[in-house]
Each structure stands twice: as C-alpha cells, then as structure tokens.
Automatic annotation (TrEMBL):
PROSITE patterns: DM10, EF_HAND_1, EF_HAND_2. The gene is EFHC1. Its main location: cytoplasm. InterPro entries: DM10_dom (IPR006602), EF-hand-dom_pair (IPR011992), EF_Hand_1_Ca_BS (IPR018247), EF_hand_dom (IPR002048), EFHC1/EFHC2/EFHB (IPR040193). Residues 575-610 form the EF-hand domain. It comes from the Eukaryota. One of its GO terms (biological process) is cilium-dependent cell motility. Residues 93-198, 239-359, 416-520 form the DM10 domain. It comes from Python bivittatus (Burmese python). This is EF-hand domain-containing protein 1. Keywords: Calcium, Cell projection, Cilium, Cytoplasm, Cytoskeleton, Flagellum, Metal-binding, Repeat. GO terms for molecular function: alpha-tubulin binding; calcium ion binding. GO terms for cellular component: axoneme; mitotic spindle. Residues 1-20 are annotated as: Disordered.
Amino acid sequence: MSSQPVQGLPLLPGSTFRDPTKTTFHRSQTLGYKNGFAFKKLPTVGIGGNRLYVNQLSQAELDELSNKRPTLTYGEPKQAPPSDFIPAHVAFDKKVLKFDGYFQEDVPISTEEHFRIRQVGIYYYLEDDSMSVMEPIVENSGIPQGKFIKRQRLPKNDRGDHYHWKDLNRGINITIYGKTFRIVDCDRFTQTFLESQGIELNPPERMIFDPYTELRKMPLRMYVTPSDFDQLKQFLAFDKKVLRFYAIWDDTGNMFGENRRFIIHYYLADDTVEVREVHERNDGRDPFPVLIRRQRLPKTFVEKKENFPTCVLEISDQEVLEWFTAKDFAVGKSTTLLGRTFFIYDCDEFTRQFYQDKFGIANFQPVDIKKPPPEEIKQIIPPYNGYGFLEDSLQNCFSLIPQPPRKNVIKMLENDHKILRYAVRMESSNPDDTKRHFVLSYCLATDMISIYEPPVRNSGIIGGKYLGKTRVPKPGSSTDDPVYYEPADLTIGSMVEVFGHRFIIVDADNYVLNYMESNLESFPASVVQSMRAHFAPRQAAMEAVRGLASNEPDPQELAALLEQIQEHMRRHNYLPDSSMQEAFLQQDKDGSGLLNKAEFSALCDHFKIPIDDPIFQKLINTCSHGENQIRYPAFLRAFQC
C-alpha cells in the first residue's frame, strides 16, 4: 500500500503518513468508445484518486502548440492546411493485383489420366478488397472455362475473416471454398505494390502444366523396332505345354448376375489365351464351351485416333503396346480380359511347377471362393388376431397365396358321421340361465364342438343353434401352442369353457359309452370308469325291465288283450304321449320295473289314461304283481304304435 505525504509537510523520512480516506489505487482508463468507435483520452485522475492538473489541454490546443515555432527570429508561423481526404474507391480505382497460380483436380473415371492441372489467374481489387479467379480458355479442353470464382470478398477461415492483400505472396497455398490454389508468380505492378508496403516477396516458382495436355501435343511414335525373339524356338520348346488357371467371374453387380466359373488356358507355344466356361448340371445355360476363343489378348493400347474404324477393322500390332504374357497371371489376383474381370483362385500342378522354375514363385496357395451360407433368419409369426381358425390364419404367414391347411383324411373317413352327444347346463350367476338345457355335440371326424339349445315353449328364450361347429381351445391355451378339447376331456361332471361361457356335463348318450368301450386305448381309465358308473343304474333298470318282461303272463293272451285295447283307443281317437315311457322310468327310482298302485294311478291321471274303463282294468289286473305293485313295462306296450 503506497503512502502519500500530508499537505504542507516536507517530504522527509518520518514525515510521510498514509491517508485512510483513499481506497482506490488503480490506474485510470485511457481508452473509450463513442458511437461504436474506440478513441484515446487523457487521464483526469491519478493513482489513489488524486485530481490531475497537468496536460489538461484539448487535442486541438495540443496540436496548435506542437505546430508553433520560436517567434524571435521568423515571427508567428502559419498552420499548414490539412490534406484533402481521398476515399479508397478513388485512390485505388482500377488498381488490381494479379497473381498466377494453379490447382490440381482428380480424374477418377479415366484410364488415361489420374489428375488434371488447371491454371488460373487470381485478381485482387484494392478499391474494395474483393477477389476473383479466372481460368484461361484452353482449346478443345472439354471443360467450361473462364470465370471460375466471381468477384467477391472471399472468406479466409470459419471466424468470419476475409482474404487481404497482406495474405497473398508467391510460393504459398490458399484455400478458397474447399479448393487449394498454389500461387507461383505475380505481375510487375503487384510486386512493386507489395514491396512498397513492406512485404518481402518469396522467389517465383515454375508454372506446372497439365501432363495429359502436354502428352497430346507430342508427335506419335511412327516406327516399330524389329523383335529379335525367335518364335520358332518358342514353338518347338513349348509345344503342347499349356498353363491352366481356374478363375471366377463375379457378375453379381448387374441385374440377374451370378458367380460363374471359367478355365483360362495360356498356350506357351504362341502366347495365346483361351477362356472356357465350366458348365454345371441343370445350370440353365446353353452348352457353349468357349467364352473367348484362342487368340492373343491385348493388355495396353496405343492412343487411338478419333477416325479409327474400330467397328470394322480388327486390332493389329500397330494398335497394341503390350500383350498378355505368362507373368500377368497369378493365383489370388484379378485379370481383366476383354472387359471382363476374372479372379484366379487356383491352378494345376504343371502351372505351379512352371512358375517355380521360370520365375521362382512357389507360394501359389489356392483361394477359398465358397461363400459362407447366409444366416438363417428366424421367421417371426405375428400374434393371432382372432379371425377364422388359427391354422387357417397361420397359412397367410407362410406363402403369398395361402393354401388351405392339410386335413387328416384317414381320420375323417374312419369317423365319418360319428358324433358324441352330451347333455350340459350353463353355470351362471343368473338364475334364469341355470335352468336352460343344452346339447353338446363333439364331431370325431373334425374335432369340432357344436352346442344346441332345445326350444322350450313359453320360456322367453329363443332356442336353436347356440354355437356352430368350431374347435374350442382349453383354458390357459396360447396361440403359439394351442390345446383343444378332446373326447377324453368330456366326462360326467366336468366343466367345459367355451369362449367365456362355462358348461357342466350332466348326462351323455349311450353311444358315448359304447364308443369308449370300443376305444379303450384312447381314453384314460378314470374317464371310462366314471362313465360306466353313470350308466350302471340305467343298465340295471333296463335289465330288470327285460326280466319282468320275460315273466309276463301268457304272451298270446296278453297280445290279444293289447290288440283289443289299441283298437279301443283308435275308436275313441286317443293319442298316447311320446314322453309317457320316460316319465314311468323316472318314477321307477330303483329301476325294478315295478310301481305301486298310488304312483301308477297318479301317472295315469297325468296322461289322461281311462283306467276306469273295464278293458283297461283287465289289462291292469293282468300286469299286477302282488297286491300293491304293477308291472308297468307290460302296461306301456299297449301305447306303442
């Protein structure tokens, strides 16, 4: 912390004190901004906040004092008038800096040139710092030339800077819009201007010309050096000696292309090449064995004239610079023959020995061209949408034109018209639904279930078909692995869930038990035993009825009496009820075939049988068993038409 002397005291050791009121000791700012422009100003406050009273003159007063001269000898000098302001567009009008340069351009689709050199002129306009790039027109170049980059301020970098004449020099590279230009020289005015501004110019470089353009200017070689090769010696030494290469032509890039195998023969006797196609069984191609006939194949051509009739004349030695020889073929490399690229993957034993003796090459390892099998893509089956049968809807995922699912014809023929019928009732919280009775039919030929509701008069429910023929899946079955109801699942007391509705089997047809007895291997023992237990009382009752029928009185007397009763009922237009026999069987709880007289009389009154008629009294006496029982099967025979 600097100290300041107290005002009025001499600046002596011990008489300096620090002023506690001073808190700022920084230097005042001498730069300022006005209307967006920076300018320099004189400080008015010193270190510590002290007011400065020196150099408080204005800039005009300082300029006037600087221009004054001593007046003792020459008197008061006169101030020179300021020079006139000349704007840049007037001072540098028509003053242009010109640089010579070039840039290199790649040529990827030409076999005669790999890159191209294009010469340009770079112009810098001093009046507005704009630049333009002009390319001189070259005759028959085939390239639109002239103005390459129009006049504008060219960006120098990504920060928004632009090229200035201070950035230009000889022997440097500049990048404009992604293209790199090499500046090699400039004109005399440009050199004089840059040197006057204190810029040291690099030495000029030699302009590079396009090699392809220069090659076209060279005269064609018109002479042919005679060959000293002895063709007769070659023929005698290598007669019937042929190099054999196994190659493949990959044409999969074109439409309907494929990999085709070929054999390349190189005849050492005359340096000719033959290409033969390898045909496979049932490949669908015509049996043309030779793809390229035996001939000398050109490798490098001379430059052809535009008027050379290639479609009329054959290729001669004057149009070919180099022919294919044995050194151009190698295992593991590609060779282009008449526009087709063949990949050589193997050769025979004679070819390997020839290359080892002639060229010292022994690493002719065959290349495996077998493609790995494509990765098997697992077919994803979409979820079942609930429309139609599952097997039928699944066929849409296997082919564009769905085919109907295959049926077990043998099973359909063996089980034709075989149907298992069950009496079921609906399990529901609604008491009206619990009183409804249904008949469930299981078709053994197609494993389909149908449900029919017998119509009941004045029940308020329309009977008829409740469920059409369909395969019913079990509860918990998934669409990926569906499990359907089978005959083994249908037994007395079991519950069948049909699309959200539950049914309980309470009875079955006699055919169900007979079918189970004849196909015991298809049903569990528990199911067969439960069905037998259900039908046991009914069978015992029927046996008892048959036994009572066998103990009846004289059949002739009974038959005559029954004939009289039936004739009597026809005279009085009495029609028996079809449910009469079922009612008597239900009343016979133990199935003995006997009913007491009270039960018998009640049933006769229910069906309006005139038991007081003498002829019916005679029949009742004939069917009596003991004092209080009646054999009702013999009595019911009178009502069977």
